[in-house]
Amino acid sequence: MFIKALLVLVPVFTAARAKAEKVFDFTATCQQAYQQISSLKITNGQLLVQQARKENPDNLIPEILDSYIDFYVLFLNEDKAEYDKRIGHFEERLGRIEEGPSNSPFYNYWRTVIYMHKACVEIKFGRQWAAGWSFRKAFSLIKENKKNYPGFQLNNMIYGPMQVAAGTIPPGYKWLASIFGIKGSIKDGMSLIQQFLNNNDPLAKLFFNEASFYYCYVLFYVQNEQEEVFRFIAQRKLDLVNNHLLAYMAANLAINNKRTEYAKNIIINRNKSSEYLDIAIWDFEMAYVKLHHLETAEAIQYFQRFFAKFRGNFYVKDAYEKMSWCYYLQGNAQAAEQARKQVLQKGSLITDADKQAQKDAKSGVWPNNLLLKVRLLNDGGYNNEALALLHGKSAADFAKAEEKLEFAYRVGRIYDDIGRDTDAIKMYALAIQLGKDRTEYYAARAALQIGWIYERQGKKELAKQYYTQCMDMEDHDYKDSLDQKAKAGIARCEGT
């Protein structure tokens, strides 16, 4: 009887033990939650996460979904109070994930994701050193996971962009990469991302939008294939109305690609439901849309709305500088000076744009009115209007050396944008001659642009010469970001 009783109890104990084991189960509810969260419908996602926990308290996927929520809230809004409340969650979740089965490909993959979330948030809150160590940990984990589970498709979504990022570390930061033991390849990284996007694996389909987000950014900034980005968005029919993450990505890249009207349409036509995370980014982007068409009064209104809502520091100095330019172009010197004072008092010095705004504000010098208008119109893609302003002008019409330099550079950019490559190269060459020993970024950027033109023409050796010339110039504005772009250009030309 005793033996029979044991035999009856064995299945009961086994079932209890199995129930207590932690699992990585991307259930239908978890998938729905992920889709809501990655569209920035955070509240809806949170409710589904709670439901998933009730369905199986031992499922660890809700921990990952909560990490995504904290990441988006902190990264997009940069609220210090929220940071203090949420930053510790990442370490707590890492501890819970480590309770899961270590022989699962999800084990190190999800740890990688949490470390990446933590790294990106730490950058936004000025903890660059901590972010570096989090990135290193993530890089090591995903590299190991790729080796142990080569057929696990999710590896490629993360490892690919990491490879690209590691392959574009500027020369000035090589020492840091060496300390962290990070080495990458742009070519290999792009190949991995593309493999993931073209895969029919169910997980690849589920994570397609997130992968597209990464892919479009590296394609735009590293591969320098801006036109391909917008073809991809159209061909893959990315939802720019109901997925706010993709809408933000497309609008942001469009503004940086001088597609102002395209960006404006995305911002205006996105789903305005209150279900989405409330972020100040839309006002920030619309301010630039208006600024780039010299609609200064409207731009000021959007900048003010951004400042009233945003709690972070990234691009705050830059935004105050742009608002000061609006007042300056209106002839309102008092308001322009007041906005410029805010540049010195608000924000941080993490981004190159914010550093430049701080430097400009400290100088006390205002830009040439005409050249500023030309710059803004060109930045918006309104090249015919910019050329009209410059009609009949030459470098001789400008008294200051820095204005002659900027004139040459601005004309080169306009010619470049409208496909007049030969004329663009001539003006860029003049900018290099006038500015190679100055601290303005124009000469270095001109060298980079010539490199892009020659690379586009298939003249890769010539392109490499100009990319190298860009990196060889010292002590100029935007040094790190321009070096990174030039290094990526050399890598493309060499196929590495």
From TrEMBL:
Q: Which UniProt keywords apply?
A: Signal, TPR repeat
Pfam families noted in UniProt: TPR_8 (PF13181)
Q: What is the annotated signal peptide range for this record?
A: 1-20
Protein name per UniProt:
Tetratricopeptide repeat protein
Q: Which SUPFAM superfamilies match?
A: TPR-like
Q: PROSITE patterns, per this entry? A: TPR
Q: Could you tell me the superkingdom of the organism this chain comes from?
A: Bacteria
TPR repeat windows: 444-477
Q: Which InterPro entries match?
A: TPR-like_helical_dom_sf, TPR_rpt
